[in-house]
Amino acid sequence: MNADTNLTTPYFMIDEKKLIENLEKAKTLKALSGVKLVLALKCFSTWGVFDIIKPYLDGTTSSGPFEVKLGHETFGGETHAYSVGYSEQDVRDVADIADKMIFNSQSQLKAYRHLVEGKASVGLRLNPGVSYAGQDLADPARAFSRLGVQFDHIEASVFESIDGVMFHMNCENKDVDAFVLLLEAISERFGDYLNQLDWVSLGGGVFFTWPGYDIEKLATALKAFSERHNVQLYLEPGEAIITKTTDLVVTVVDIVENEKQTAIVDSATEAHRLDTLIYNEPASIAEASEQGQYPYVIGSCSCLAGDQFCEATFDEPLKIGQRLHILDSAGYTMVKLNWFNGLRMPSIFCRRENGDIQKLNEFDYNDFKRSLSQWSVN
Ligand SMILES: *Cc1c(COP(=O)(O)O)cnc(C)c1O
């Protein structure tokens, strides 16, 4: 199959060619810097395309026990596990399959280190107290942050009982100079501690696949850091790997007017593209044109009053039955799909490099029903 006009909307279309363009940049970064890259599954875990990604990256990083298991089973390589809060059962389940286990606090480390020793390399998340993030909600260094150990709270002896540390302090950071400054701040503040370790992970959020990003500058800074502290460096990219690879394809089912024209489509941000809503970041539509004379709200078919994808202008009036491609819909979307309003769940396809379209997932009424109850009271 290589025509997508017959596919029933809504659906996600992952483009292999675009994915490989991002992965080639990842390969360059690795080659120039010596850094290892593990895919953050919380951003993207559509394992049906992992065979495309595997040759380029070193493994995965996960939080919940199911993510860890999925990474281990479907991706392989190095499996990193970090959670803001592990239960004892989580630790027991994860320790057997993880290569690295990273605790969020010194109390969790003390409580569970003995369960991990001899099985996985042990790490601790530190909070550098500095960050690069557009919104407070996504800022790991926000006031009263619960993410990682603050510098002032570190017990120096802790470094005798761990192999590495993780810092995560970036969100969609497209500015290499800003990242290098963070790196220098960490080196200065935590350097004496880092010198005692085997590995340091610098987390995710470094947008090295953004057009024009100076990968060489990033690589030089990472290489210098790893040599200065004699550690293996890791990055944990999510968004950077799958950015701009995937459209959410929808159909206009109605057009209504109330001072503005709203085109209602057969999808909803609340159910299928949740971060549009959470971060109040409008989506982009492939068919829109900045100079267009016909403005529309692209509205969701959910019941939530403010649920819309964006406002956009078009060269021609939109028509009922017409398809729209909502761009850049891979990250933090498929991992957050939900059944709100009993909407049809988007199916998931991959357009291979040779043009073939392969189905990775489809959902039906039974998936919806089972997600709500499997047994009724009697
Ligand atoms: C969210 C997260 C990532 C991935 O972030 P991206 O912005 O998608 O690159 C990596 N590491 C940790 C600890 C995270 O919380």
From TrEMBL:
GO cellular component: cytoplasm
Record EC number: 4.1.1.96
InterPro entries linked: Ala_racemase/Decarboxylase_C (IPR009006), Nsp_de-COase (IPR005730), PLP-binding_barrel (IPR029066)
GO biological process, one term: lysine biosynthetic process via diaminopimelate
EC class name: lyase
UniProt xrefs under CDD domains: PLPDE_III_CANSDC
Keyword Lyase appears in the UniProt entry: yes
Keywords: Cytoplasm, Decarboxylase, Lyase, Polyamine biosynthesis, Pyridoxal phosphate, Spermidine biosynthesis
Listed GO MF terms: diaminopimelate decarboxylase activity
Main location: cytoplasm
Residues that, per the record, bind substrate: 239, 275
Keyword Lyase annotated: yes
Needed co-factor(s): pyridoxal 5'-phosphate
Subcellular localization, as worded in the UniProt entry: Cytoplasm
Reactions accelerated catalytically: carboxynorspermidine + H(+) = norspermidine + CO2; carboxyspermidine + H(+) = spermidine + CO2
Domain of life: Bacteria
UniProt-listed PANTHER family: CARBOXYNORSPERMIDINE_CARBOXYSPERMIDINE DECARBOXYLASE (PTHR43727:SF1), DIAMINOPIMELATE DECARBOXYLASE (PTHR43727)
Complex and partners: Homodimer.
Family as reported in the entry's similarity comment: Belongs to the Orn/Lys/Arg decarboxylase class-II family. NspC subfamily.
Role played: Catalyzes the decarboxylation of carboxynorspermidine and carboxyspermidine.
Protein name listed in UniProt: Carboxynorspermidine/carboxyspermidine decarboxylase
The encoding gene: nspC
